[in-house]
Amino acid sequence: MVTLFAALILQASWVTAQNPQPQNQPVYLPLILRDFCAEETLPRINVPEFPANSNIPEEYFGQTAIAWFGQVTPSKNYADIRVGYNSNLLYVYLAVFDRSLWYDMSPSAERLTEWDAVTLLLDTSGGTFLSTSSWRFVAQLSSDPSPAYRAVYRGSTSGWQKITTSFQAVPGWRGNALNDDTDSDRGWAMGFSIPFSSLGLASAPTSGQTWRMAVIVHDRDSRIGPPVGDQSWPPIAATHNPACWGFLTFGLPSYTSNRPVVGSVTIRRPTQNSPLVPDADVGAAIENQCPGDEYHIWNEWGNRNYGKAPDFNVQNQSDVADWPCFAKYYITFPLSDVPRHKIIVSATLTLHQFGNSGGPGQARSSWIQVLTTRQDWGENNITWNNAPLADENIGGNWVEPLTTHPGWPGVARHWDVSYAVAKAYARGEPLRLILYSADSNYHSGKYFVSSDTGDWNAEGRPRLEVRWGEP
């Protein structure tokens, strides 16, 4: 890594010396950055398709693909990304955790990103260089969805060119007030609806088609500024370099194998104190549900570890004010008991649900999504702020609320993870999964048994069943 950055600095110095640039103009290093932003290191969002002419935020918000980036601190922002599409448009929604909300009451297109704002970058060709297939949408937080707080640019060989095209960017916020110094806000949101026709396309992308995408959240925490700093997905995203953007694939991945099953294995933690199948809740674990203390939520919440808890929560919702109730779940299964040189036929993740948040009649069903990551993590130190980002979302399943305690080990819930197991197995890696939701409803938390439950409840521990065939 040091060698790479040294090369970047030397290359930048040489290019500048050979081709003096006007002050404040960027120097582009596409060849080096393209190597740095190798395809296998970049995350992917697999976008679910919804019915034609559907109102995605009204009807399918909780089933949109989920991704995230950033951190929760007094000076940094975290954001959830939700993405969906139908035959007419692409929908991208950002929910940003931010304790101080500021917007420009006299906006100009050139200064939109100097306040709380979002930049959405798309390349409809999936290319690695700016071209006419590259698009840059900017929307600043405001008290109303006025066009004055939006701008759009199209790529060219000479950089970004401001244009006019039709799209919506609807802001929302939760907190004390916009443009005040109390530092007691909770966050804001921006929902982009971009017609495919506005991108010069005659129709929606076909299933399996891949674009490039990146998102940058801009932050300002005081009236006089300056901007605090950007958070982005992927973290290495560069506005002028699509090679460092992530991937946006239309449709969810699938996996099938017609090989006869010749063997199978069930993988789960054998005893409470075993190191096998580590798992952890991050965020609003069951023992840390929806804390209200301002110091705690901005300074401690994102850095708490619950890796040894006997249970866990998965929760999200559309009201960004309640982000201290949100929780994700991480689990790693070793695949060493699957013989080498086999073909994965199918794989199933099973969790046991024993409860949910909310009183009787308040909870609703949740589409709990499964995502993968290739990064390792430690059960004793993983937190919301240091947990690995997802590599891609692979699907999900509905989890119904429980009206009464079902008795132990709980109600078995299942997810098809064949696609993820086949990829991890082919790479010779363990299976690293994340569970999270894009829920809209309040009281969406669903409670499950973890690997750390006592041996009396071993049947309730998370398990992975893998079936294989011969090549």
From TrEMBL:
Domain of life: Bacteria
Signal sequence coordinates: 1-17
Keyword DNA-binding: no
Record's subcellular location: Secreted
TM helices/strands, residue ranges: none
Pfam families, A to Z: CBM96
Keywords per UniProt: Secreted, Signal
InterPro entries reported for this sequence: CBM96 (IPR055372)
Residue ranges annotated for the Carbohydrate-binding module family domain, each copy included: 300-452
NCBIfam families linked: DNRLRE_dom
Name of the molecule in the record: DNRLRE domain-containing protein
Organism encoding this protein: Thermanaerothrix solaris
